[in-house]
């Protein structure tokens, strides 16, 4: 694995709740809680015991998540991009919300690069990005693989990296993006995917699936705590983010404006490529 990117994008702004959002910002709103859970579940080692149900089993899962958080290196300030959206012809900007202070320095977009200091993830950047008023709505984990040494000679051209993508929303799916030779006499390489779309594969039961809160209530009744945050995990997650939040409050970070409906600040894409993620933008998966 060369890099891992966790993305949370919303295609709408604060929609009148800017005053509430301004107290917290995008980092506290989704990164420190929701997205850090995604990261730790992905990066943790297999639990020493994971069979059956109940509190004993769930503690092994939570132990491994805490180990990941304790292995985080301090966030480098030059590996952070913060932004705040401006209005466009149709939608107002963040500060145009009457409930938002005119001098607000609250980020509505953030990209943070994490480094995990353990044998499995040494040298692999974890890129977390989240924002409001962007060009699309999606939440996903994108695992980008290293290119094999012989790939240039095999394909006679520079091809996109293979990727495994876990799409959380919309349209839950898991797909492998890979490069294949185009059928026929041509030697051209095309990008395609091997995919599992939940709505297609489980179409008979998908509409009847319980929502997330129903599942959590069931886990509570079963005594399964693996989907809940333990107090030491909460403390460790705040240790990761508190220095960054303090630097934002001290106005040590430039807040880059970006237009409503865009991909976000251009500097974010530049940072993504600088830390090793290869973005081509030439292929889009369609469920």
CATH class: Alpha Beta
Could you say what the CATH topology is called?
Answer: Dihydrodipicolinate Reductase, domain 2
Q: Could you give me the name of the CATH homologous superfamily?
A: Dihydrodipicolinate Reductase, domain 2
User: What average pLDDT do the residues reach?
Assistant: 87
Helical amount among residues, as a percent range?
Answer: 25-40%
Basic shape: globular
Structural class: alpha+beta
Round the Cα radius of gyration to an integer and report it.
21 Å
Number of domains: 1
- Architecture per CATH nomenclature, i.e. the level-2 architecture: 2-Layer Sandwich
CA(first)-CA(last) distance: 25 Å
- Runs in which pLDDT lies below 50 for 5 or more consecutive residues are none
The order of strands across the largest sheet is 8-7-6-5-1-4-3-2-9
- List the total number of helices: 9
Main pleated-sheet profile: 9 strands, mixed
> Element order, helices and strands?
EHHHEEEEHEEEHHHHEH
Pathway: Carbohydrate degradation
Organism: Rhodosorus marinus
Pfam family, one: G6PD_C
GO molecular function: glucose-6-phosphate dehydrogenase activity; NADP binding
